[in-house]
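TA notes. Do not distribute before section.
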Amino acid sequence: MSVSRTLTQITWSSANSVTVTAGNQATSDAISMPSDAFGATVQVKADNSGTPASGDTLDAYVMYTSGDPDAEPDSADEYDTPGHARYLGQLDTNAEDPAILTFEISPFVKGFRLYVDNNSASNSVVVSAQMVAKSA
């Protein structure tokens, strides 16, 4: 059995990165999971736009979809809501700038969106990310 890796850039309104201002959040564009995936990771990079200070952290979450749970006629995918998204972890730009961390995510979903929350009091954070899926 041959194993392949698929790299997918996570985009934000079609851009490869997003600037998240202090105290705000951002949600990525939808990412489709390869149907034959058996493993997946997301690597997130947080680059502080200013001089990092204590508390300049970024929380990362994944909002999964398995399709349309209502089976509505429009059949549009519905994603986990931000308050119920799966917490992945925290990147601390005061400890390292930029901070980069890789998280495992479930490959057994139709797709996902990445949700990030900038906890800093005054600095913006530039966020970029990519997914690596392992398929048979």
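Switch to the second chain here.
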Amino acid sequence: MDNNLEKILEPIDKLVELNINHFDKLIDAQKKAAEQYAKVTRERMQQAQEIRDPEALARFVTDQMALAQSSYENMVASSRSLFESLTGYNAEVIQLFQESTQDIQDEVQKALKEIHKN
């Protein structure tokens, strides 16, 4: 019976591991993005403090607009990457369930037969 139970619970263990790996990747990506955003913000604040004339202000505003465009492009790329990651994760979960459904049913039937023998 213990062997049957282990076989039945095996897909759950795989799903837990899959979830942990997936969420670790997501958390790591978010942490890196937040660290980069904080770094850029600190740099930009320092540059803004150094503005002393209209030409410097014009350069800062132009740079800020370019930075905003770049940030937008990075956000789009990040969203695309997240979508691909979620799609891959979903495919792995579906595959895990498809592979394990019949195995679980077989093991449950074996366990029930053993119970009825005793």
